[in-house]
User: Fold this.
Amino acid sequence: MEPRKRPLPRFPEPDTQPFWEATRNHELRYQACDKCSAVVFYPRRHCTHCLSLALTWKLSGGEGVIYTYSIVRQTYDPAFAPLVPYVIAWIDLDEGFRMLSNVVGAAPEAVHIGQRVQVQWLDYEEVSLPVFRPL
Assistant:
């Protein structure tokens, strides 16, 4: 039996489509409010601070630090079984937003809170996924 394919984001979805389209060009994008300058992530239709609808897409440099993480050592989903063990982490990007992603390119035991990381990309036919590698 062939392993099930890794689940991928579904779009078009109006609020997130520009984010996923940018990933195809290996661009990590986030939103900023034109009214109050708040950083908005995950992509939304309105500012989470002042509720303004005036949001602008910005380009992230793709660097940040690990806020917290967990090592996944067991999975019941066959699509993720080949990845075990893997690290899932909250990443605080330098631009002021936090995103959930995987940390790759290091032994799970070498990952630590406060570690500097940089985005890299897992390319699939439908979409490119941002993951992070220690600097």
User: Anything to note?
Assistant: The two ends are 38 Å apart (CA to CA). The chain has two domains: 11-59, 61-135. The longest helix spans residues 17-23.
